[in-house]
Design goal:
This protein is of the alpha/beta class. It has one domain: TIM Barrel, CATH 3.20.20.100. It is about 40% helix and about 15% strand. It is built from 12 helices and 8 strands. Strand 1, helix 1 and strand 2 form a beta-alpha-beta unit. It starts with 11 loop residues before the first strand and ends in a 13-residue tail after the last helix.
Length: about 325
């Protein structure tokens, strides 16, 4: 069941935090999340990004509960094969994880299916091929791969009459390594959609947090970003000025920046207000001068926000 004639939204909504895996702090129930799903769907934000590794099935199970209540052609689903979770004893570990995710999500078809990271590459790309040829994957994606790894995978797929359709990397005002390394240009030149995750740096760039109001101390994101808040406050101040001039919230500026760079941002949502911000951000058009001002101050700070599971794109 393909959806080629439908227009995707400019923004994807991420369900990583729905996995309650300790990354974000706190816990979320299906009752907490259902209003978020409903409002997003009404707003036309119907591209959902998840993975089995997000809570080892918890995110997919919760999202799947909601997806089962709406027609399959009313949404897009983006799920991932994570090498670190692979069953190495399986005949085809990619197919096995795909089937597990499909059952949890209540679908037999993934609009996007990703190799989550390059650990063990390119073995997993080869194991993905039967799924793609069976018609169960609409678009093949690679996440957290550098340019050389992307090209290696592209060569393998091309020999099978297949292609990479999407790349997903950490990309934000504070981490532009996918641009500096040529990945964005490669995507533009090859008709590949570039998905940007952590555009808001897990909330650190949302304008909600500062040294007086830090991120949850018991979370991975708190431990990562709280020590950086004195510097992050400086870029948030610049974003605040830009946001005020557009009559929008600070959280909409990093999202609008990513869209202006040609990316499709993935915004993690755990509150209704975040969905509303995401919907509005798609309409914000930053000027060249505003984009430059944001990037200039980020360059001055030279903050390293590459996380433990990632690598610097070179």
């Amino acid at each position: 069941m393909t959806q080629e004639n439908k227009i995707m939204p400019k923004i994807a909504l991420g369900a990583w935090a729905w996995g309650n895996d300790g990354t974000f702090g706190g816990t979320l129930s299906a009752n907490d999340l259902r209003p978020i799903f409903d409002i997003a769907m009404k707003a036309g934000l119907n591209l959902w990004d998840t993975a089995f590794v997000y809570g080892m099935g918890t995110s997919e199970k919760t999202l799947g509960t909601f997806l089962r209540t709406v027609p399959r052609d009313s949404y897009y689903i983006s799920a991932k094969f994570t090498p670190q979770c692979a069953n190495h004893g399986a005949e085809n570990a990619v197919v096995e994880m795909f089937n597990t995710s499909a059952e949890l999500l209540g679908t037999d078809y993934m609009d996007f299916y990703w190799i989550h990271n390059p650990v063990g590459a390119p073995k997993w790309v080869k194991e993905l091929i039967p799924l793609a040829k069976s018609g169960k994957i609409g678009k093949i994606g690679l996440s957290n791969h550098n340019l050389a790894e992307i090209k290696e995978a592209a060569d393998i797929l091309e020999k099978e009459g297949l292609k990479i359709s999407a790349i997903q990397n950490h990309f934000s005002i504070l981490n532009r390594s996918s641009e500096d390394s040529g990945i964005l240009d490669y995507c533009k030149g090859n008709g590949i959609t570039f998905f940007a995750y952590m555009v808001l740096e897990q909330g650190a760039l949302s304008g909600k947090y500062d040294t007086k109001h830090p991120l949850p101390a018991d979370s991975d994101r708190g431990r990562t970003y709280n020590p950086l808040l004195p510097q992050i406050e400086k870029i948030v101040a610049v974003m605040k000025g830009i946001a005020d001039s557009h009559g929008v919230s600070v959280a909409q500026i990093p999202v609008a920046w990513a869209i202006a760079k040609g990316a499709l941002p993935i915004i993690g949502v755990t509150k209704v207000a975040q969905v509303e911000d995401a919907a509005k951000a798609a309409a914000v058009e930053l000027t060249v001068g505003e984009i430059k001002a944001l990037e200039n101050i980020a360059d001055e700070m030279k903050l390293n926000v590459v996380r433990g599971w990632e690598k610097e794109m070179k």
